[in-house]
């Protein structure tokens, strides 16, 4: 064998030289107990025959453990000793690989990569699964050529990555066939995604293993398995240490990638399920951020109690009846924030345990909308739940501005309706416009008296706020209704003409209604109804002025204008009959609205109109109004 190596050194590079080297390696491998690995491997490295280093080292390792005790963990210490003896031979392979990775003098970069891949291929052809697992870890952890493993038909790589990544238990190492590997990976990922076998917490190195597994599965075109593994990664549990933390934003990013692969695989059910998980995670993230803001605010209050330093717990300066409540609130928020950061939660758990418990009424409404309703019960019960949540949200934003200008308080309530309602207007059950209009009008009528406003000047401020609030309310309801002024006007007509406008069950909101005169509420309703009518007429007017309006479209617009003009006339009569000091201004506004509607009906004054049957009602209304005056 030594002579053959000498012949190989003397021979020029080519097939003859390769034959000498291979014959020499085969002879040395037949006598593994007497060869010197260090000397031979150095010689083979000089000859750039790196595959021979693998062959000789594995032969020596097998000779040191002829009973394969290293592959039998149940033997305990005997297995450990056998593994140590084998590793003394494996180290020569790792040194050669490391030299290829880092020593640029051995060969050029492409040659080093090819030589490294040749060593890996030779190792993969052996039956030494203990070495193959160790080599996978060495290559993946120490070189950029790890991606080269994905281009090889590497037996056991999928099982290794799934096992080292924490997706499957170590006991599954015996599953070596390709079919068994595929089944094990898909089953484990599906179980983790279903939370029947939760995944994690995982370290960053474990996550890197599973990410490499996904890249390998993509190379094989197994997109469904990729979606399952990414879904399991996105839904995994977290730990308290920095290496084990996964932010909710990162979870969503991983799950969005899983959705793309599920779509590629054509699994609509999995795609919809992952989409739902993402939506629920977004709710969880919003709740966590809202509670973090509340926690920071309470912590600032706590620092003020301690003179700007430390925690109020045990602080001698932190005294007073509010301290125990503050401590309890901070403790509850700390617990909730920890739970929200650990793992994804179910929608019902988020709703009952966090959104309801911490009075996040707007998020509660969005969650009910996403879930498709309030669960069981008849429509009246579900409607009452939605109305109560809206009442709580309006009260929250209204009372947060208790020390501000009255109009700002109305603005806060209107902003809540327009912002939240615009995302719910496609679902009329979630956006009870009539109920919201009534509640906003009750608030705008100057009903709350808890501020102690008693002087004439302060009362005048409330009156001015009520006069200006109608525009805000109508604008907010229109935004909530998707920009439909017609829908808002449709809401106000029954509110104005019914005698008893209060039809909802008793709630905390009712205190605002009972503290005010019904007459003021009626005037506020009339004022806002006039604003809604004007807004609807302006929309019709803008549509009528658009270029290209003719035929049936023009007839429909003029019909709407006629109906609105007639409604404005009737409402004006209703306003004047009420005989309130503020009604005269409302009637003048309705006159202006009716005039604008008539401009749509009669673009040219004095010109006969083919729509006279439509406008005759409006004309009679105008005449009746004039006679009434």
Automatic annotation (TrEMBL):
Pfam families: Nucleoporin_C. GO terms for biological process: protein import into nucleus; protein localization to nuclear inner membrane; RNA export from nucleus; transcription-dependent tethering of RNA polymerase II gene DNA at nuclear periphery. It comes from the Eukaryota. GO terms for molecular function: structural constituent of nuclear pore. Keywords: Nucleus, Transport. It is found in: Nucleus. The keyword Ligase does not apply. Coiled coil: none annotated. InterPro entries: Nucleoporin_Nup133/Nup155_C, Nucleoporin_Nup155, Nucleoporin_Nup155_C_1, Nucleoporin_Nup155_C_3. Transmembrane segments: none annotated. Residues 6-496 form the Nucleoporin Nup133/Nup155-like C-terminal domain. One of its GO terms (cellular component) is nuclear pore inner ring. This is Nucleoporin Nup133/Nup155-like C-terminal domain-containing protein. It comes from Volvox reticuliferus.
